[in-house]
Amino acid sequence: MLIVLAKAKVGEGALEAARAAIAAMVEASRAEEGCIEYSFTTDVLDPASMHIVEKWKDADALAAHFATPHMAAFGKAIAGLDVEIVEAIRYETDDGAPVM
């Protein structure tokens, strides 16, 4: 399994302007073959920070995700907004186990 953790900085008003594009991206990504989890969250202590958490079956599923039309549409939708991806890291892991 692959886990992608990304962090973005969003300027004032950018989250609201991007909300529909984010919702469309999440919905389409979750429907993809090989997608286990896909979510965007805002940091409760820093509303200018957004976190993206993705879980993929394997590298092929992630590569296919990057080639989707909804990925391209999302890029276009946020291109003029004050949204900057400051970190995106891919981790390879097993399926995990409950912590408690």
Model description:
By secondary structure, this protein is an alpha+beta fold. The protein has one domain (2-92): 2-Layer Sandwich (Alpha-Beta Plaits), CATH 3.30.70. It has three helices and four strands. It has helices spanning 14-30, 59-66, 69-78; strands spanning 2-10, 35-42, 49-56, 83-92. The protein has a four-stranded antiparallel β-sheet. Strand 2 (35-42) and strand 3 (49-56) form a beta hairpin. Helix 1 (14-30) runs antiparallel to helix 3. The two termini are 21 Å apart.
Order of helical and strand elements: EHEEHHE
The class by helix and strand makeup works out as: alpha+beta
- On the 0 to 100 scale, the average pLDDT is 96
Question: Would you tell me which CATH topology applies?
Answer: Alpha-Beta Plaits
Report the top-level CATH class. Answer: Alpha Beta
Distance between the termini: 21 Å
The helix fraction, in percent, is 25-40%
Number of helices: 3
Q: Count the strands? A: 4
Low-pLDDT runs: none
**Quaternary structure:** single chain
Based on CA inertia axes, which overall geometry fits? globular
- Could you tell me the strand content as a percent range? 35-45%
Any idea what the CATH architecture is?
2-Layer Sandwich
Rg, rounded, reads 14 Å
Whole-number count of domains: 1
Strand order of the largest sheet: 2-3-1-4
- Largest sheet features: 4 strands, antiparallel
